[in-house]
Structure formats: C-alpha cells, structure tokens
Give the backbone structure.
Amino acid sequence: MGQHEKVATSLAGAVSEGISASLAPVDAELARRYPGDPGTRQPVHTVYVPGDVFEPGTVRSWGDQALAALDEHAPDAATLAGVLGISDELAGPVYERVRAKLQREPIEDLRIDFEDGYGPRPDDEEDSAAARAARLVADAFAHGTPENTAPYMGIRMKCMEAAVRDRGIRTLDIFLTGLMEAGGLPEGLVLTLPKVTYPEQVTAMVRLAEEFEKARGLEQGRIGFEIQIETSQSILAADGTAAVARMIDAAEGRATGLHYGTFDYSACVGVSAAYQSSDHPAADHAKAVMQVAAAGTGVRVSDGSTNVLPVGPTAHVHEAWKLHYGLTRRALARAYYQGWDMHPGHLPTRYAAVFAFYREGLEPAAARLAAYVAKTEGDIMDEPATAKALSGYLLRGLDCGALDTEEVARLTGLTRADLEAFAIPRRAALTVTTP
C-alpha cells in the first residue's frame, strides 16, 4: 500500500465526534481527580518533635546524636553492613553517604507536634508554644541552612473530634498567623490533620483553610495538608465504602499526603501491643487501600513507624537497627517511599535502607531506561509506563542523596530534565516514548 493511499473506513466522522462529546465530562473528571504525581520532591521520612521540645538547634542535634550513635555502635562500614546485611560492594558507599547526609541534611521533613506527642495543656501554654513554633519555623526557613533546617517543616494540630476541635483550630490559627506576620507562608510548609474518621472532618479542614486564606488575602488553595490515617473508619466506612477515597475527594485538591499511624490504627482494630507493627497484616491492608485510593491523585502515601528505639547497649541498638532497616526496606519495595522516624538513632538506618535500595537498583534501572530510549532489544520489553516508573525511581534516588547526577547521566545518557520528562505527572505521559 502506498504511503499516501487512501484507506477505507465504515464509520462517519460524526460517530467519533459524538463519542468524544459524550466522554467530555469523563475527560474533565479524570483530569480533575487524577492529575498524577505533582513531580516535586517527596521526603523519605517525617520526624515528629513535641511542641515544647523543638528548638532552633533540633535538626542539628538529631544529626549529631545520629552520628554519635554510629561512632559508638558502628564506627566503620563493615560493622554497619554486617549488622544490616548490606553487601560488601555497597558497604563503603552506603556508609559514607549516610555520614555525609547526617552532616549535610539530617532531617528531610519535620513536624512540630501539638497532638499525641504534646498532649493536653493549659490554653495559654499551648498558645505560647504555637506562637513560638511559628517564630522558629519562619526563622529557620528565612535564615537556616540544610544542616540545621529541614526542607519541609510544619505542625501536627489536634484533630477535628469534638473534645479537642476548638483547641486544634486555635493552635493552627496562631501558627499560621505567626508565619504571616513573619513574612508569609514558606514554600516548605506542611500541615498534618490527625485521627480523621469521617470525610466531613476533611471538609471542615478545607473550610478552615479557605477562611484563613480569605482573612489574610492568600490565593485560594494555597494551604494544603496531610491526612493521618489512624482509625478503622478512615479505611472502611459504615456503609462499606472506602472512606479514604472519599476523604481525598473531600479535600478538594488540598490533600498532599496520607500518613499511616501504626499504633493508633493497630489499637483501633484490636491488635495486641506486642504485635503492633507496620508489617502486621492489618497494617498491610490499610496501606494497600490507601495506596489504591491515592493512585493518580497526586496524594502521596507514607508508612508509619517503629516504637523500638535504638538505645542502650550495643547489642540492643543493633537489634533495633536491624528491625528498622528491615521495615524500611520492606516499605520501599511496596512503594511507600516515606515513613516516620521517632528517635535520632533511627536516622542511620533510615538513610542506610534508602541509600542501599537506590544504589542496588541503579545500574539495572539505568540500563533498562537507556535501552528503552535507544529502542534496543533485550530480555525485557518495557512500556512507557515502566519508563515512567524507572525515571521516578532514579529521581527519588537523586533527591535524597543516594545517587549523584553525574553517575545517573553517565549510565543513562539522560539529564535530570530528560528524567523529569519521562516521569511527568500528567496522564498523557503514559504515551511518551522519548524525552
């Protein structure tokens, strides 16, 4: 058949036009509900510090305590690798990167806690602590450096349940007002709404954000927030529907993350204290529902934490490190790229797990992506969706410091801009074949 030879069809053009017209509302709904990942950096963890404990030097102090733990319990690469089961090939690079990370950027995301980690206090005391938190966060973003300021910071307020609702709203108001008085809301600001049980509580948070934006002359939608999943009702509603999906919808585009609360959720479904862990089947079920509900919406999912602290004798520290490392690696394999860290001693194993995960997969991922771009035949036939996943993997590795731009470029032949073109969040990216 000639290149320009006319081919026969049976359907009139009006058929296609009519179908397109009938699907226009669906097209709009897909674009609204499933815009894709925002394409911004996702921190590998969140650290919670009580509102009365947070100080200007907290970030640096956590890094120093983590380095001291390494010095005492794993003073060289071989020791840490032996404890965690890291290969000899990766032991040195991972250990060096962990120490460098703890010096350069000890915490990626920090939440000043006014909920469980802070507890009930007299109103004037919490008022003062919230105002103080605003001053410290504003100063950190304005004048801090990566080694003493986390890239993402904010507060966890009290929840929307009746007993603490007014207190939570007031604390958030004081904190946000303090930030505005200090110059405005910083780009790295993150807010967390805990113990959500009904979508209506998310709607209430949206209304609260809207009213603050109006009061302070902010653009609509400026204030986003994370939803903490800590109750069974947030996964399965009374009518049998997936409540977490309705919560994302109720957020009206303001939800930035879903954070799994290991211990509140476990207790809610009756798991005994000794078995409350992020790898319990009840936890796996909850996170799987969260993951499916959030897929394509731009809302990110975070794993929970372990309450086993790496403190005391070296033998106990090593056992706690093995547990934390294993849970973190397990979460990464299941596409939960963020989790909670409860203690400075968790930082070495958080970063060791993250760095080992990305460095182990660097060469295979780079080779597959390079072959895809070059359309080279091999033993794996990757599709555009897989190229998107491979690019996202490499970008996450670059963001946290596990990988270097130069080595990724050398192995793939691609720049960061090329990787971002493959990992572009829009649904149309599924059809992209070259950067």
Observations:
- The first strand starts at residue 45 and ends at 50.
- The chain has two domains: 45-359, 362-431.
- The two ends are 32 Å apart (CA to CA).
- The mean pLDDT is 94.
